[in-house]
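User: Some background: our group keeps a shared notebook of sequences we're curious about, and every so often someone picks one and asks for a predicted structure to add to the entry. Today it's my turn. The entry only has the sequence so far, pasted here. Could you supply the structure so I can complete it?
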Amino acid sequence: MTILYAIARYLGVAGCACLLLLWHYEGIPGAPKVKFPGSWPIVGGFGLVDVPLIGDLTVGKVESYAAERVRLATAAQTAIYNARIEKMVSAAELTAANATLARERALRRMADEAAAEADKRAIDAKRGEEAKAAEIERLRAEADQDAGLSRPNQRDWEWQSRH
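Assistant: Of course. Here's the predicted structure to add to the notebook entry:
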């Protein structure tokens, strides 16, 4: 304390005011480099500028302003980077969605073609069954008209169903 009084008496009020303003504006040179060792039980592992009130006084306005500008510039660059990434992701998602849509359309077209082909085969099978039934009826009618034919007749069909 005696040293502070001696400095104040030597510099005077104006000198002390200038020194305080310089300290407030520039901070204490080297103060950000002061680190407390990790072995201290209460404060270990952080620097002098990490203490709230002392940190504000030791860093100074010049350093604080520069740090704030760096933080703002970094935030702006991060926002631009994130916007670019989001745009690229959106483009990639759009490309993936278009590919999925194209694949779904191709699968739908193939399913429609397969269904049309199955309908065509079903119609052909039905026509074939009708033709076979007509042929069987024709042969039955022939057999009923001519007893000498060796084709199965109604009695043969009944006999077969019983045995």
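Suggested note for the entry: The two ends are 130 Å apart (CA to CA). The helical segments are 2-26, 52-59, 61-145, 154-162.
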